């Protein structure tokens, strides 16, 4: 009898919707969504990410994702070391965001001799959603249109 009760609770728990990216990314079709994430990894250098010359993410944390809502259009992203700037290489990217779409960028650290850089690599929606499933999420709402 106990086993049936446990099985019943287990089935109920399976049916309860969990906080998912689909709920977080549900927005009106006039916005674009950019998800930047970093998998669990050791980090010896702190990095920040700029969006159109303003700091979007002051410190990119491992095992976290940042959900950024903003107006569609071109965005210029830059990664930069925030602690050991002389030992961290700056990288610049541009991306055109379309209304109603979600874009996934994985932040990957690259270690070189005396130099570290943070690369942003575009991932598919399926791969990105799977990667962030168990990560801590932070939402950033950028309302003003970017040039």
How would you describe the overall organization of this protein?
The chain is α/β, with parallel strands linked by helices and 147 residues long. The chain has one domain: Immunoglobulin-like, CATH 2.60.40.1120. The chain is built from three helices and ten strands, in the order H-H-E-E-E-E-E-E-E-E-E-H-E. A hairpin with a 2-residue loop joins strand 2 (47-51) and strand 3. The chain is globular, with a radius of gyration of 18 Å.
Task: List strands and helices in order, with pairings.
Layout: H1 2-15, H2 21-24, E1 32-38, E2 47-51, E3 54-57, E4 64-70, E5 73-81, E6 88-89, E7 91-97, E8 102-112, E9 115-123, H3 125-132, E10 136-142
Parallel strand pairs: 1-8, 4-10, 6-9
Antiparallel strand pairs: 1-4, 2-3, 2-5, 5-7, 8-9
Order of helices and strands: HHEEEEEEEEEHE
Give me the secondary-structure category. alpha/beta
CATH architecture call: Sandwich
Shape: globular
- Sheet bearing the most strands, described? 6 strands, mixed
Question: Gyration radius, to the nearest Å?
Answer: 18 Å
Tally of distinct domains? 1
Average predicted local confidence, pLDDT: 77
- Which strand-content bin applies to the residues? over 45%
> What is the topology, as strand order, of the major beta sheet?
6-9-8-1-4-10
Low-confidence stretches: 2-26
Number of strands: 10
**H/I helix tally:** 3
Distance between the termini: 65 Å
Protein name: DUF2846 domain-containing protein
Organism: Algoriphagus boritolerans DSM 17298 = JCM 18970
């Amino acid at each position: 009898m106990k086993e049936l009760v446990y099985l019943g609770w287990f089935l109920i728990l399976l049916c309860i919707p969990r906080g998912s990216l689909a709920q977080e990314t549900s927005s009106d079709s006039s916005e674009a969504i950019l998800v930047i994430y970093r998998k669990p990894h050791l980090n010896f250098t702190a990095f920040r990410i700029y969006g159109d010359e303003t700091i979007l993410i002051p410190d990119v944390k491992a095992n976290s994702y940042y959900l950024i809502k903003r107006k569609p259009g071109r965005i210029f992203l830059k990664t930069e070391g925030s602690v050991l700037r002389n030992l961290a290489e700056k990288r610049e990217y541009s991306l055109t965001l379309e209304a109603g779409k979600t874009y996934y960028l994985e932040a990957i650290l690259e270690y070189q001799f005396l130099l570290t850089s943070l690369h942003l690599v575009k991932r598919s929606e399926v791969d990105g959603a799977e990667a962030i499933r168990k990560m801590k999420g932070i939402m950033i709402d950028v309302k003003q249109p970017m040039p």
